[in-house]
Amino acid sequence: xxxxxxxxxxxxxxxxxxxxxxxxxxxxxxxxxxxxxxxxxxxxxxxxxxxxxxxxxxxxxxxxxxxxxxxxxxxxxxxxxxxxxxxxxxxxxxxxxxxxxxxxxxxxxxxxxxxxxxxxxxxxxx
Length: 126
Known about the structure:
Elements: E1 4-7, E2 10-13, E3 18-24, E4 33-39, E5 46-51, E6 57-59, E7 67-72, E8 77-82, E9 91-98, E10 115-116, E11 120-125
Parallel strand pairs: 2-11
Antiparallel strand pairs: 1-3, 3-8, 4-5, 4-9, 5-6, 7-8, 9-10, 9-11
C-alpha cells in the first residue's frame, strides 16, 4: 500500500510564496508519476502540476510560470514551489501518485492517479 502525505500549506498574502511537500511510501517511488491537484470550495478538482519518473514536468496553464515541481527520489519526496500567489489560488492542494511505473506520458486527469493524500489547505489573502 502506498501512502501519500502532504505538508507545507498555510496562509499567505497575495504575491507571496509557499512550498508544498509530499512524502510517499513505496519502494518503486522512483518510477511513479507524481502530481498536484487542487480543489476550491464549490469547484471541481483540477490539475496543477506533474512530474514523471524522468523528471519531465507539466503545468496547468493558469499557473504556468509561477510553479516549480520537483522530486527527490532518494527521500521519496515531491515538492511544489508556488510563487506570486493570488487569492484565486486558495484551495486544498492534493498530492497524488500514479503507480504505473515508468510511464512515458504524464497523466493530467485525476482518475489516472490511484493514491492520494489528505490534502493541505492553501489560503491566499488579498
